[in-house]
């Protein structure tokens, strides 16, 4: 019980310290980062390059999944893996394009990101559902899931080559 009261008093003192408006004086003003237009452009270019690298890695992993499934399970498995990879890659590529356009136009916001992410997830689920309905005669689900998972984990390819930055 004593520990609980100590935690409450410590939490209150931290809250007072963090929320104290007197902290925003001259020593805090020195810590504010102001970016020039050139700095902003360099950061935007780096972000766009990172998006393209992530998309390339996801595409490579999707193709690798299709090749592996094709060699192990035959042509139907290869096409299934490619379809599973495409169910995630296509919405993700459209989302990345939308993010790049928003950043370039200066209209990027957390709402843009969150709404785009939700739309991407719903589109992926819709494409997987359509895949189950349209291709049920030839679809090999383990291969389709392999393509989906390897595409989702495309960033591992970037980490492997230490290009994620």
TrEMBL record:
Top-level taxon in the UniProt lineage? Bacteria
Keyword line: Cell membrane, Membrane, Transmembrane, Transmembrane helix
**Membrane topology of this protein:** Multi-pass membrane protein
* GO CC annotations, alphabetized: plasma membrane
Give a Pfam family name: ATP-synt_I
Cross-referenced InterPro entries? ATP_synth_I
> Where in or outside the cell is it found?
Cell membrane
- Could you confirm whether the keyword Transmembrane appears in this record? yes
According to the record, the segments passing through the membrane are 50-73, 79-101, 113-132, 138-161
What protein name does the entry list? ATP synthase protein I
Upper classification of the organism = Bacteria, Pseudomonadati, Pseudomonadota, Betaproteobacteria, Burkholderiales
């Amino acid at each position: 019980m004593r520990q609980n009261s100590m935690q409450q008093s410590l939490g209150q003192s931290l809250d007072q310290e963090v929320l104290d408006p007197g902290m925003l004086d001259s020593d805090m003003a020195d810590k504010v980062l102001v970016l020039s237009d050139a700095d902003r452009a360099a950061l935007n270019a780096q972000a766009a390059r990172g998006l393209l690298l992530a998309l390339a890695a996801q595409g490579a992993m999707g193709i690798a999944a299709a090749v592996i499934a094709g060699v192990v399970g035959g042509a139907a498995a290869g096409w299934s893996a490619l379809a599973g990879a495409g169910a995630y890659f296509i919405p993700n590529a459209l989302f990345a394009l939308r993010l790049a356009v928003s950043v370039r136009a200066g209209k990027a916001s957390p709402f843009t990101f969150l709404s785009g992410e939700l739309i991407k997830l719903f589109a992926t689920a819709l494409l997987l559902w359509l895949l189950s309905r349209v291709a049920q005669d030839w679809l090999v689900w383990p291969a389709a899931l392999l393509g989906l998972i390897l595409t989702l984990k495309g960033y591992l390819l970037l980490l492997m080559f230490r290009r994620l930055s």
